[in-house]
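User: For a benchmark we're assembling, each entry needs the component sequences followed by a predicted structure for the full assembly. Here are entry 17's components. Please fill in the structure.
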Amino acid sequence: KAGVTQTPRYLIKTRGQQVTLSCSPISGHRSVSWYQQTPGQGLQFLFEYFSETQRNKGNFPGRFSGRQFSNSRSEMNVSTLELGDSALYLCASSQKRTNPVTDTQYFGPGTRLTVL
Amino acid sequence: GDSVTQMEGPVTLSEEACLTINCTYTATGYPSLFWYVQYPGEGLQLLLKATKADDKGSNKGFEATYRKETTSFHLEKGSVQVSDSAVYFCALANSGYALNFGKGTSLLVTP
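Assistant: Structure for entry 17:
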């Protein structure tokens, strides 16, 4: 079974631009979560989608948004990019949503975003 | 709120040495605990997990026991290899799908 895939793997943008990142979950997985990883803040939860609906949201500004499609693929968008948005953005998928506490999240390789 | 604290790195060990990476947590209720590993340039891979007190997770020679009385989930391996060099993250799940991660511990194993 193929793992979680993320595209693109690397991205360079300038301040003020917007960016869209894509995530394809493991086949059959219906929950997709996004995380931001930076050297200073570590790994931080952005949001989670299930059945095309955002179910949980972390403490990030409204510039960060996402969506999920009927095939469970997900995109996240960052508008008006700032230098501090430079990070590795990780997507994770889970098979079911019966028990979020015990379900395992499987991570993709991430998209490295650099904002100049 | 919930939090995870793990020992700062980097940790440098010789091949075949014993490894312990400490992880303690603060949480209400009954969280699940995870160890993830990140190799250079890659995403996170699940190493092991435990979903209730006294559970022991194990994988690839690594072990960790969920100790509710000491709120700990220390990662151990009896004999490390060069290929174990990576960053290790302790994480907690207590509600929703928001994993709460520690800062990560970098491990370097030398031949």
